[in-house]
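Table S2 (continued). Query chain:
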Amino acid sequence: MTDSSTSQAELEAEVRRLEARIEALQEEVQHERVARKTSEALLDRAADGAFTAHVDAEGSVKEVWVDGSMPVQQDVLASVLEAKPVPAHCRHVVHTGQPVRFLVEPETNGARSSRDLPSSIDLASPPAGEAPRVDEATEAWDVTLVPVQPDEANRFERPTDVHPDEQPDERDYVRGIIRTATAQAGRRVLRESHALQHELVELLPDAILIVGSDDRVLFSNSAAVDIVGASDQDEIRDTEIWEYVHPGSQARTRKWKDRIRRGAPIDFAEHKLIRSDGTSIPVETASVPVIYQGQRAALIAVRDLAGRRRMAETIQHTLDLFDKAFHLGPSALLIARLRDGMILEVSDRMVEFAGRKARELLGETIAQMDISMSSASLEALSEELMDQGAIHDRELRVHLPGERPRVVLLSARLTEIDHAVCALVSLVDITERKKAAVAVRESRTLLDKIFRASPAPIAICRLEDWQYMDVNDAMCSLVGFPHDEIIGHRPDDLNLWVNESQEEQLANRLAAQDAVYDVEAKFRRSDGSIVTALSSFQRISVEGEECVLAVMTDITQREEKKQALIEAKERAEEIAQFRSTVLSNMTHEVRTPLTVILGFTSILSDGVSDDYQRFVDLIERSGRRLLLTLDSLLDLAQLEAGTLDPDMEIQSVADAITRMTSSHAEAVEENDLAFSVEVPDTHVFAEFDFELLGRVVNHLIDNALKFTEDGSISVEVQQRGDDVVICVRDTGAGIDEAFQARIFDAFSQESEGNTRSHQGSGLGLTVSKRIVECMGGQLTIDSEKGTGTCVSVTFPVVSVDA
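Corresponding output:
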């Protein structure tokens, strides 16, 4: 298992690095194989025939296979195998691992005899002495026996009937190479044999050293030069072998030297070798006694264990990593033997996919997993895999017992495990992916329908050049062009934008941000008319290309109505201004003579008799009423024109109310009504215009006096939290609830026309409310029909330092 923090990408990268290392190591292994194959080819190059024999511990031949590429006649093979020294030679080859060469020739009585040929390895020159003498006319055979590995013994084509004894439990094999050996042919064979032996030794992957009895190196092959770190073979020749033996291994090596002198071979054993640069590496060596250039010597084979160990460690690490990738990868994997479908290994994802435990799946066949396929059978897939060698991303619908159908991607590849052809099978469950893909398609279909059916004009343009990629019918209706004339063209091509600089500004904004909302722009239709649209633009990606989604709303009629309203408002403001001007002028024109009339009434009241006094009083009351109406009209005109400018000051509300109400007590009492003014003992300050507030208080008291026949009228000043409230309360007729909603409308009265019960212009409360609001206060009414009314004026309290 691996740490949870190890990502799939890191795992795959590590797998790729190790695969590269494995490929390099495999190339080295392949090089060794090629060398060995080449050695065999060189050995067989001068052969007239070849065979492989299975022999027992005593060297007796039990079974023979003939090399089909170099067949040997049955009578020749029988003559060779019947030679007396053959069992001894076979036994020697099996036990020592060294080749044996001998001649087989007829004797005078017709039987076959043999003579040993020099079997020593002479890589420089033929052995001293004459070659075996064979009569030119006598047919003889030069036979070489070499050891054969058991796993290579089955590569020859046909067994023979020679010695068809029962096969023993333990098998040893030798290979025989037969050459025709007349005297002349024998000498040629021997010469070729020495050359071939030299080539063989050079091609061997192991380092070969031949050391003389004086412990000096007589010969080395190229592999030996590499392993000791020398520059060439001459650098090694004539050096002492002890220069390359690690001090810790010298005692044991000297014992082996004594055994070699006694003619005993030394099997492979591990120790350390000292290289020319002083470093040591682990090696294993084997030694055999030989005759080299006429003197006794030892042939030493050296194998570098460091490289092998690194290879083994790398392979093991790779196997561990592949095991982790196998079990931790996202795919459901299994390895099955192809000939019978037996499952050899399953990944964790395959266990989850199958819904069974790993030990239940191992040893079963794929058919026993009870997976049914709708579009292909196991047999058909197996045949295709055998034919093609691999299957890639085949989408299949599979059924597992008790589960809903699943959609999987199947991939498979042939591989070889322990000489058996197997299949590595990968299943990726894409059921949810398919559902998501269907959902995406449905979503796209739905969005396309919305796009087409939307009443809002929608267009998709390419961001790079604003070329239209798609538009809906509403967009075509908006600009008056058919669909085909819009697609593939730019707005400039169709002359759509009325303000081209606005188009350029929009392009710059979308280049810097993802969306632009509520852009009001005018567009030119195909007939030349102008439409106004409120548009929003959003950057989107369509098939990997940057685009702009434009959604528009035709506000042409709304803009027309808006313009009409603006014009109507301006006309209304002009009318209101005209009315205010007329009212202001008329008020001033009427007020001047009225003031004169009221001035003379006070003189008349002193100069007329009591019989006419009531007429003078009537004139004075009517004039003052008219003057109050004119003041209300003037205030209303100023309020509507916005020319009323209050003179705001911070003042004591109690003192101001006391002064404002002092003149009303007499008039109230003349109507037989009780009048009271209640103010707090401490001063409460507010900011207001004394004169304007006085007008408001006068209006409110006059209204209370007008509508109250019995009872009382009171004025109260109270502090409520951060506010000061002035209440004018009466016990009069009260106001109907239905009329309270429009009581502040100008010229509005509860009783109207000739039947109204009380006089008045209907401006008092309207003007009073606007004046109070102009000073930053509020005016409210609380009234009940038949009970009375309370009018409240509220101002914020202002703190004044003592």
